[in-house]
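Worked example

This section walks through a single chain of length 740. The input is the sequence exactly as stored; nothing has been trimmed or padded.
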Amino acid sequence: MDESQFTEYFQNDEKEKMFELVRRLMRHCSDLVQPGDFADLKKTITAGIAQGYYRRDIHGIVPALRHLSTAVNLCEHVAPDRNMILAILLYNLHGRGFLSGEEIENRWGEDVKALIDCLVKVADLYRRKNIRRSENFRNLLLSLASDLRVIVIMIVDRLTLMETINHHPDDDFVKEVATEVSFLYAPLAHRLGLYSIKSSLEDMSLKYTSRETYSVIAKKLNETKKERDAYIEKFIEPVKERLERAGLKFEIKGRTKSIHSIWNKMLKQGIDLDRIYDLFAIRIILDSEPDKEKSDCWTAYSIVTDMYQPNPSRMKDWISIPKSNGYESLHITVNGPAHRWVEVQIRTRRMDLVAERGLAAHWKYKGVKAEDNLDAWMGNVRDILEAAHSGEPTNSMLNLRMDVYDKEVFVFTPKGDLFRLPLGATLLDFAFAIHSGVGCSCTGGKVNGKNQRLSYRLHSGDTVEILTSSSQVPKQDWLSIAVTSKARNKIRQSLNELANRQAEPAKEMLMRRFKNRKIEVEEAILMKVIKKLGYKTVTDFYKEIGAGNLDASVVIDAYQNFLTPADSVEKVSAEEFTLQPLDETADQSTNNDVIVIGDNLRGVNYRLARCCNPIYGDKVFGFIGSDGVVKIHRDDCPNSIHLRERYPYRVIRTKWSGKIGAQLGVTLRVVGQDDIGIVTNISSIINKEKNTTLRSISIDSNDGLFQGHLTVGVPDNETLQSLIKKIKTVKGVKNVERSR
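Given that input, the structure is written out below as tokens.
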């Protein structure tokens, strides 16, 4: 490339870095790309730079440098194919309109175009604000899940971005990127077995979000480096000698654990750095023939455990049964010199490459099949995302993240098929792991020949037979039994579908009642009524009607309050309405255009409006209906502005005189943590209140939070305010407010 063409867009140090990255990439890809690829790329990218398609982004980062660094990182940390490299280097030019999709397909192939299209879609989603709080985040995850290579590219791109923003001046931007990396990309790297990338991402995330903590640990590690190196050498020397005598070819090395993992251990154990002894691990990498890999690993294991006392509870055999991401290794923790615990990892050269480069490394070895594991994991990701409620994309990723980091148990079907599940998985989780249909119809099972309930927690080695029934349907309490995100999301999906089916008869009944009252239903107004009544979804609304918790008459009255009484204006005019004289005992200080409602009111037909449910003590006004009935509304009623502006001649000043005496219904909205006993505590407070009764309660619990609508009978506003204050004192209650 002609260096003069970069002067306008790049600083000197950036130009030098770019040419160095190009040289490194050419070395890595010499056997990977096709003849003419580099010449074609050089010509295309140079033209793109010259025409301004690689200008800095809004954060001051040069796209050309970022993409070259990503391509180099991909070569050094993973095992990419040609099309992945081309897609990384070209997608910016396609996304900005310099290259058309047709041109890309003609010059570099259909697969490159498909990868670029996916990367452009992901980049477009990232340009939108609040991505993790919207449906865009779920779309992003589904895009990532469509092709393993896209996930790998995005993970490596985040690694490059994290390396680039080390001293970026925008702290908010740095913390936002670091938080997302910790939340999304580090778990995905872990799941794909990209452990070195995962460790780097986690360390940098800790550094950017809690630099002081990171610096303290890094400083202490640096101060003790000589001591650790000396100890590792002392540990390794005799082991080397014994391995050589056994005729094994090997490499042995020690490494310090990542700063993030050390920090996690400090948090979990509640100790400081000085009290953590296993700060490092020893790795023995054997050069073994394919048919001797397992036997050589166990030979090395025997040598190490003969020399140093092992801790049986810390032994992990990932050779007999590899992890679902293909990871194979023997892990043992032994009591080394000076009685310090040391972790030893034993693996072959092939296993080490898979451990460092993840599932992608399997592509390097013919005859080694990772497709089954990969397809199973990718299927799990898609199941989680596709079954997730569209309003809760973040929770879906949290569930996925939880599955990623959990340890595994291994269970068998009666035919001997092996299934991996997270530690703590139940018989119900196993049923959904087999098939969603099996899970939804599961009634129990036999574990090792004995009947067990759905809540039975599985153990490695269990043989499980699932029992089903055609009449079984998922239950709400299954959500407290299931552990895996796949099972939980399928249960939620089935419950929603079941609720939709049950809501249909209730909807038909309500429509009949509207028809009997000769009311033509407008969908938009009905939706407002549903929202005003406190229901988040239409399904919940009809479900309450079907269960008998909500009277259809209440809905119809609320609907009528939203209607514009235009059709009836001519029937009864405001002038035709005659207000009856007040009783002699009424307040004589008021003039004739004021209704004083209470025990003393005589001769006036009035009722309290259901749209706002006023009670004694509320500021109110009267509205003359077409039938001559005066409806009493609260001043802050949602309909008050409309009524006052459109029908001012129907509005009558109103005030209370004395107490009505009877209890009036008020709906309270309560939000809080879904703690055990919180509903009982709230009910107890209401029942203890004098002249107060609990008429109905509706609770919706979701992901540790609950929202309840309580209908209480109270005589006046003073009693209501006192009740609200007392409910707010209940542990776990976050907010109490009167519903309109």
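What to look for: The mean pLDDT is 78.
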